[in-house]
Amino acid sequence: KSCLRNQLTSNIYSINNNDTKSPLVIFLHGSGERGFNNNMPLLANDIPKKVYNYIKKMGAGVLVVPQTTWSADMTGWFRSEFQEGLMQLINKIIVEYSINRNRVYLIGLSNGASASWYLAQKYPDLFTAVIPCSGYVYNEGKKFLGEKGQGRYMEPTDEEAKNY
Length: 164
Fold this sequence. Notes:
The chain is of the alpha/beta class. It has helices at residues 40-43, 47-58, 80-96, 111-122, 158-162; strands at residues 2-4, 8-16, 22-28, 60-67, 99-109, 129-133, 144-145, 153-154. The chain has one domain (2-162): Rossmann fold.
């Protein structure tokens, strides 16, 4: 368990039964798992459990399950302090846990999936594979449609709207 900027908490699971560098899997939760209970991203989703069991079976790997704090605006992973904290955490883990830099995987669900798309675009050389599940493509500078605290979507640009 670690804390970054008093905002981002994280569960870290590490197994390494051999001398090789380990793969790293990062799981980003959805909006419903934001909060101050660090077990929520684990309890609300089967994905981290399945990844952990796979790593355990294979004998090597590191799983990181960070959690953002709750806020009514539902921005979750798009708050700059979380992105900065997440990148600091990933870079720290790569060094401290002897991670194979060619095997860094990012999985995201809902808001975490949207962040996965965004982070893959922003850091294309960091992730070997990105698995976004039920996310939307987030673009900085776009406006949200919908009210804060409710499901929201990105407003299309004029150029995007011409394509529909």
